[in-house]
Amino acid sequence: MKELGRDFLLFRIGQALSMLGGRCSHIALAWWVIEETKSPTLLAAILAPSMFVNIILTPLMGPAGDIFPRKYCAVLADIWCFVFSFVLALLALLGIFDPIWIVILSVLSSIGTALLSPVMYSIVTTLVPKEHTQKAMATGSLINSIGFILGAILGGILVAFVGIPVTLLLNALSFLIAAILTSIIRQTSQSFVNKDKEYKKLVAKWFRNVGDGVRAMWKIPLEMYSGVLVMIVNFFLTSFLVVILPSYVERGLGMPAWYFGALQASFGLGIFLTSSWLLEKFNERIPKDIVCIVGTFTFGMCIALVGWTQELKLLPVLLIGVGIGLTAINVNMRTQRILAIPDEYRTRLSACRQFLIQITIPLGVAYAGVSLKYLDFSTSIRIHGLGIMVVSLLYFFVPKYSKFMRSNTKQVENFYVEHYPQAFR
C-alpha cells in the first residue's frame, strides 16, 4: 500500500470509520423504529425522506468538488453529519422517540452525505497517481469492507447489550474522527474558482456546472444506460437491505439484533473477500464486463434464495454472496469511470450519475414497506432477487459496454473524450 501514499490511507481510514459508525447507526435506527412501532411501513416512511433529499441534492452539490478543493468539501461534509447525528443520539439518550424529529435530523444529515458522496470517489485521482487508480479503488473498498464488517458486528452487539443511544453516539463520533483525519492530509485538488477570481459569478458558474454534468451524462449513452440499470438494481437492493431484512429478522425469524448484525457482517465479509483477493483473481481470468454481469446475476440469485430458506446457518452464506457480487461490479465500474471522466468534470458527472442511480431508492424503500402489507416476507424477497437477475442480462445491450470495461488503464483514460467528444464541449 506504500505506493498509494499517506494521504490516501488517511482519507480512506477516516471514511471507513464513518462507515463503521454508519452501520452501527443503521442497525440501531432500524431496531429502534421496529421495536417502538412494530411496523415495516413506518420504518420505510421514516427512512425515505432523507434518502429522497440526498438524491435531489447530490447533483446540486456535485460542482462543489470541481470548484473548491475536494479535501475541504469532505471535511465540511463530515462535520455537518457529526452535528446532526449527535443531536439524534441525544434524543435517544433522553428516551425521546419522535418520528418527526428523527426524519428532520436524518434529512439534515443527508445534506452532508450529498456533498460527500461524489467527492469520495473523485478525490482518489488527487491523492494517488493515475496508474494506481485500480488498486486505490480496490484498497478503498477493502478498507470500507473492514469498517462495514466491524460496524455490523459491533452494531449488533451494542444494540443488544449496551443500547441504542450508545450506538447512535458512536456513529456521531465516527464522523468527527473522519473530519479530523481528512483535515490533516497534505494533498488537495485545485480550486477552479481561483482561475477567474469572479466570485460574484460563483452561483451562475455553479448551476452552469450542474447543467454541464447533466448534458455530459445525457450525451454518453454508456454512462446513461448503465446508470439506468444500476438505478433499477438499487430499487430492489436497498429496499431489501434497509427495510425487508431487519423486519424479516425481527418479525419473520424472531431473532435478536445481534443476528441482524451478523447478517450485515456477512455482507461486509463478501465485500472484504472480493476487494482483498477475489476480484483480482476474477479479473485475471475473466473479462471485466463478464465479471460485472455475472456478479450482478449472482447477488440477485443470493437474495432470491434468502426467500426460499429459513435456515439460520445458510442465510449468512447467502449474504456473503450478495457482498461478493455487488463488489465485483462496483469496483470495476467505478475504476473505469473515474479514469474515463476528464478531471474538471469528474465530480459533477459523478454527482449526476449518483442522482440517476439513486433516484429509485426512496421508491424502493416505500415499495418494500407497502409490499409487506400484502405479501409475506418470502415472496417479497424472491421478487427483489429475481428482479436483479433479470436486469443483469440487460448489460449485454449497453452500447460499447464490453469495449469500455475491457480497456486497459491507458486506453480508458481518454475513452469518453475519444468516443463522446460532444459531451465535453
UniProtKB/TrEMBL annotation:
Compartments where located: Cell membrane
Database matches in Gene3D superfamilies: MFS general substrate transporter like domains (1.20.1250.20)
Pfam family, one: MFS_1
Annotated TM spans: 40-60, 72-94, 100-121, 142-162, 168-185, 225-245, 257-278, 290-308, 314-333, 354-375, 381-398
GO cellular component annotations of the record: plasma membrane
Predominant location: membrane
Name the record gives this protein: Permease
Membrane topology listed for this record: Multi-pass membrane protein
Major facilitator superfamily (MFS) profile domain: residues covered: 1-402
Entry keyword set: Cell membrane, Membrane, Transmembrane, Transmembrane helix
Record lineage: Bacteria, Pseudomonadati, Planctomycetota, Candidatus Uabimicrobiia, Candidatus Uabimicrobiales
CDD domains, alphabetized: MFS_MefA_like
GO MF terms, alphabetically ordered: transmembrane transporter activity
InterPro entries in UniProt: MFS (IPR011701), MFS_dom (IPR020846), MFS_trans_sf (IPR036259)
